[in-house]
Amino acid sequence: MIILVINAGSSSVKFTLFDMSDNKKVLANGLIERIGLEGTSVKYSNHKDYKYQDKVPVKNPQDAVKLVAKFLVGEESGVLKKLEEIDAIGHRVVHGMEKIQKPERITEQVKEAIKECFSVSPLHNPHNLAGVEACEAVLPGVPNVGVFDTAFHSTMPPRAYLYGLPYNLYAEDRIRRYGFHGTSHAYVSRAAAAFDGRPPQNLRIITCHLGNGASMAAVKGGICQDTSMGLTPLEGLLMGTRSGDLDPAILLHLMKLKNLSVQDVDNLLNKQSGVLGLAGVGSSDLRDIEEAADKGDKKCAMALEAYAYRVRKYIGSYIAALGGLDILVFTAGAGENSVTLRAAVLADLEEVGFKLDPARNAVRSPEIRVISADDSRYKVLVVPTNEELAIAEFTQEVLAS
Ligand code: AMP
User: Fold this and answer.
1) Which residues does residue 3 pair with via DSSP β-bridges, in sequence order?
2) Distance 285 CA to ligand 1 centre (A)
3) How do the domains of the chain map onto residue ranges?
C-alpha cells in the first residue's frame, strides 16, 4: 500500500511517500517552503539517491501538491509509474476539539469540523484544510485521511481536561484542555510498550516530547490520562519560544502596565518567551543555549535549568496521576539528542526511582534504546519519534477499517 503523508503549514508543505507493503519504506520525501512568498525553496529526494534543491515559484498549496505529483512520477525523479498507485493520503491536522477524536477519512462533514476549529487553531487548521483541498483537486479519487494532533488526548478524563473556570465556558464554548503532539505521544508510547515486551494493558508510561515545542503525556494501558498542553499549545512546559505555564494574572497586569494589545501579548507568550526569552542570546535552539552555558553564560545555564526543572515537576505529577510508573520516554529534537538535558531532568532522583546509566545516556543513535541503569526502578528510554510514519500507519488503519 502506497501512502502519501502531507503536512501543510502556513507557507510550507512537507511530504513523505511510504510503501507500507515494503517494510514501510520511504520512497521519497521533500519540503516546499515560502509558498506564495519571494524565493520559494523546493527540496526533494527519493530512495534511489535522486536529490533536487532549487528556488521555484510556487503560488499556493494546490501548485505545491501539483509539484509533488510531478516529482513522484517524473522521468528522473519519479518513484511511481502513475499517480493512481497512491492508495491514500494522510494529512496532519492540528486541532479537532471534541468534534474529531480519532483519525478519520475526510468527508465534507470532517472538513466542516476542521473549519469549526479555526477559532482555536487559527495558525494551523486553515492551512491543514488547504492541504486537504489541494490534494482533492490534484489527486481526485484518492482517499484523504485526517490525523489529528489532539486525537490521542481525547481519552483524558474530565478531572484532567477541565479548567477551574465557570462550567458554562466548557459546556457552551468547549474551553478545556485538548493537548497536542498526540501523534508523536501515541507513536512513542506504542513503540516503548512494544520494545519493553511487558503486557501493554498494564504499562504506565510518561512520554516527554522535547522539541522546539514541548509537551508531556501520562499514558496508562495505551490510553492517554493527562497531557501538558491545553486549549492551545501554550500551556505546560517551558519551550523554545513559548512560556508554558504561568500565572494568568500576569497578562492582565502587563496589558495594563505596558498598554499591550491582544496581539502584543500573543507575540510575547508564543514567540518571545521560553528559552529564547530567558537566555537572551537571540536563539531558541537548545544547542546554542547549551554551548553558551558551557562557555560560562549564566543566563543560558539558568534557562536550561528552568527548562529541565519544569519537565522534572511534570514527571513527579504524572507519577502521582498514574499511581506509579513503568517507563519514562524521551523523544523529539532535544529529548532524543541532548545528553545534558536528560541528565539534568533526572539528576539526583535515585531515591524516587530513576537511575540513569551515564554511558548509555551518552550514546547517540537513531534507534530506540534504554538509558537507565539495570537497577533503576523505572526504565528510561529514548524513542526516536516519527510523526510522518505514524500518520501513514493511522491512515492505513483507517482504510482497513
Ligand atoms: P523538533 O521540534 O523535534 O524538530 O526539535 C528541534 C529542537 O531540538 C531544536 O530547536 C533544538 O532545541 C533541539 N535539539 C536538536 N538537537 C539537539 C542537540 N543535539 N542538543 C540539544 N538540543 C537539540
Assistant:
1) 18, 88
2) 6
3) 2-148, 196-382
